[in-house]
Amino acid sequence: MKLSIVTPLSVVLETEIDSLRAEDISGSFGILPGHAPFLTTLAISIVSWRRAEVERFCAVRGGVLTVTDGTSVDIATREAVLGDDLATLDREVLARFQSDADAERVEHVESMQLQLNAIRRMVERLHPVSTPRGFQ
Known about the structure:
- The protein has about 140 residues and is α+β, with helices and mostly antiparallel strands.
- The chain has one domain (about 1-125): F0F1 ATP synthase delta/epsilon subunit, N-terminal (ATP Synthase, domain 1).
- About 30% of the residues lie in helices and about 45% in strands.
- The protein has one helix at about 85-125; strands at about 1-5, 10-15, 20-25, 25-30, 40-50, 55-70, 70-75, 80-85.
């Protein structure tokens, strides 16, 4: 099978593989040659693959994995880091990816709060509180 890992800025990897393991929201799964067409969103995780009994790894910051015709596995991700040492990838790279994702969530919540406050103010100005009859 052919494996391709791409980010918005580069092609990280194009290689032939014998098998692949990845993780989505439902858990870990494997891909072998001849796999049925498949599409899933990846979690922040480590993708591993084997070629001639050699295992390689790539930390991915989420993304989309597709299997086409059982001969091609394509991964599109925001960020990918290749590595031979699983422990280092797990400890350092995944921790950074998770920290970045947490910071983005906080920024998103803060942005939504600012937008909602702005909308509330606009609605208040468009519909001023009416005074009861006789109190003008």
